[in-house]
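Question thread 4412

I'm putting together a teaching handout and wanted feedback from people who do this every day. The idea is simple: show students a protein as raw sequence, then show them the structure tokens that encode its fold, then repeat with a second protein so they can compare. Below is the first pair exactly as I plan to print it.
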Amino acid sequence: MAMMLAQTDKGLGAFFAPIRRRAVGKYELNGVRIQRLKNKMGNKGLPTTELKLKGTRGWMIGKEGNGLKKKSAILSALGFWGRALSISRAYTKTCNVRDGLLQDSPQHLRWMANQTVDYWAAFQLAFFGVALLGTTEQGRHGHDARAQKLFPPEDAALKTGSVRSVEGVRA
């Protein structure tokens, strides 16, 4: 599966699409053709690929022309939280406290474990919300529509996500 940005009639839209699709007795690329490869300049030289999508089957995420404007803030907050946990783990391996390293402190390990569990719970909840929104936007409203009522409106989720990201910072 891949997240793609593609031009629509109303502007740039975000799509969720499988890379391969089932053909008769085999799998083939889902309408994806490599247009060209080019080198990207910057801190790290990474190749960039331009793809031509023709007949690609995918599902739109969000509203047409909006891409991922609102949802990207929540997902970015999760990314920053994960990065902060990674930096914290690396720091505990070098920080000396009292008799040894910070990573050997039971109190700190308990705090890190709680933060890690909270992070993964928020991660799962965010992507569960994305999946629910995707099913309702595709017109399949069965029991998933009832589950969607558990989530606040999009703007409220954005405000809550911003507040939660600040509350997660420990002085």
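The second pair follows. I'd like the answer to focus on this one:
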Amino acid sequence: MRLSRVMHVTSISLAAGVCAWMLLPMLWAATSALKPLEETYAFPPTFRTQSPQPGNFVEAFRRLPMARFVLNSTWIAGVSAFGAVLTSAMAGYALARFEFRGRRIVGACVLAALLVPSQILIVPRFLQYEWLGWLGTYKPLIVPAWLGGGAFNVLLFRQFFVATPREAEDAARLDGAGPWTVFLRVALPSVRPAVVTAWFLSFVFHWQEFLDPLLYLTDFKTFPVSLGLRMFQTLAGTWANLLMAASLTAMLPLVLLFLMMERDLMRGLGVLASVRRGRETGDPD
């Protein structure tokens, strides 16, 4: 009993320490965004400021069109996340519900896709998009999300559909509903946590993506917030307080989305253990 209590206290203390360590950069960014420039580089560093400067946020938006960068990122991430959810849900539904020849092979290929580093595809994809004439447009950033949505999202939806009873879908078919009606109006709403989780993770991924926009976008007006922050750092690298203010502005939409979707996200992330077990065993069924 005593050993169990010690383990419990130790686990809580360790978790609290990890959380504090992870929140430390956020706290530093928030305090630095409100500091005058001279306090930002003061040594030894401190989290307190003698004279808060909320005008740093206004100045950051004045130096570069951060509002436009945020809107560009919202468009790219929103459209990409919608396509990723729709197509990965269709693929996961097919793997969970349909019996067809080679289903296990397809499932194994999806699992194997998780092991392929995306960096090895940079050159082939760039040459392909150049041949298609897509350079300088949003198509290289958005279209791939509409072609399957990523192996992880496919496995996420498959796990949810496998765990969801089929009775409601069968009843809809008996009432004369077609395949698309069953999928969109019955099956997909029944896995709402998976939809929210896949959409949020896809949105965050495309929001913070840096390499692909750097490779494919050429017009300053089309840059997302990730490239905007890099430009800010280049143009005003010594103004760390303004850079922190712009970075907090870029993080704010993601924080708000998380707070709005927290309940469904927690339920959706609960199936990650089963996805991981499937990946480790290599058994898609």
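Top answer:
Good format. For the second protein you could add a caption like this: DSSP finds 15 helices and no strands in the chain. The CA atoms of residues 84 and 149 lie 4 Å apart.
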